[in-house]
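In this supplementary section we document a worked example of the pipeline. Step one takes a protein sequence of length 155 as its only input; no multiple sequence alignment statistics are reported here. Step two produces a three-dimensional model, which step three serialises into structure tokens for compact storage. The input and output of this example are shown verbatim.
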Amino acid sequence: FPEKFSKLFESLEKGWISKTFGYRLRTKMTLYDIFRNLLAEHLMINDILHGYNTIKNAVHYIEENYYKDFIDLNDLAKMSDITPTHFIRLFKSIYSTTPIKYINKLRMDRAVELLDHSSIPINEIAQQLGFHDVSLNAPMEKVRSSTVCILKIEA
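The serialised model returned by step three reads:
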């Protein structure tokens, strides 16, 4: 963002100082380009804010309930008064990930925290965080292994 505008302002300054043939037209053109970019940034920010406001209740629900067994995408979409497809698209445009990956990241971050600061066995942590399927305990083992390695390196 700032780099794009820095280049435009540098171009504006060079054109104005050089006063070569057509400098006024180039100056106007550069100013219009700056205004166009500012408007585009403003509209993009408004779209993101509007999108966030649309899904904020669902995101709050996710952040308060990520450890539960099952969070239904249809329920999240209903909380936002949009279709599940639109919810996924909007969520991904704001958070750069899908709702499922976001939930799993919250779970994994909490798992690392529990592994680092408690003596709870990994199986119990997996159960607490909604990883009830045996195949989902594989990521938990990776977290435990990497946490143990980090702890050994720091010790």
